[in-house]
Amino acid sequence: MKLLRFPPGLSLRPSEAGTSADLVSRLLLENLSSLYSLAYRLCGERSLAEDFVQEAARKALEGASSLRHRQHLRAWLFKILSHVVYDHLRRRRSWEASDLVEEDLASTPAASVLSDATTHDVRKALGQLTAIHRAIILLVDVEDFTLTEAAEMLQIPLGTAASRLARSRKELQQRLAGYGSQRAGS
């Protein structure tokens, strides 16, 4: 993944990261894998996911000088990424109906650790959810954002986020319901 070119001399140590741009740069580097993973799972295409992360990083670095609060910066980065992906999919009119492209699921960053059949089946089931349902479940259950933070990132009311999360979990549970018996019979 060829992303993010930072200016020479940028300090990545917390004690030396005095400016907002330094802080955002450090946070981008710390969360690059998670940002890419979310983007990839939302769109299903490696090159498009890289483009989304690059665009989110550009926007975050441009907005760094106007930061007023340094709390919740990780949520702010993921919100920017969510907006970038959402805007792209909305332009393609496929946010609600987008299906994950059947690309090699083992090519995600954590593939060496998560390469067993169970992980593949869960990823496949996640990929069958609509993009908005996949997004809410990934943000809350995988990236550990609060429901409120996820609702803000996706620009939907809290109640809508809660119902979509519940529906997403139920649909995922239904898709994986026969998993144990299928594996036992294999």
Largest sheet: none
Euclidean distance between termini CA atoms: 36 Å
Structural class of the secondary elements?
A: mainly alpha
The CATH level-2 architecture is identified as Up-down Bundle
**How many strand segments?**
0
CA-atom Rg in angstroms = 17 Å
Supply the number of structural domains: 1
Helix coverage percent: 55-70%
Overall pLDDT score: 77
| CATH homologous superfamily (4th level) name | PhyR, sigma-like (SL) domain
Give structural notes:
With 186 residues, this protein is an all-alpha fold. It has one domain: Up-down Bundle (Butyryl-CoA Dehydrogenase, subunit A, domain 3), CATH 1.20.140.160. It has 8 helices and no strands. The N and C termini lie far apart (36 Å). Mean pLDDT is 77; it is low at 6-17 and 95-115.
Structure in a nutshell:
The chain is built from eight helices and no strands.
Structure keywords:
186 residues; mainly alpha
Write the layout of secondary structure elements.
Layout: H1 20-43, H2 46-63, H3 73-91, H4 117-127, H5 131-142, H6 147-154, H7 158-176, H8 179-185
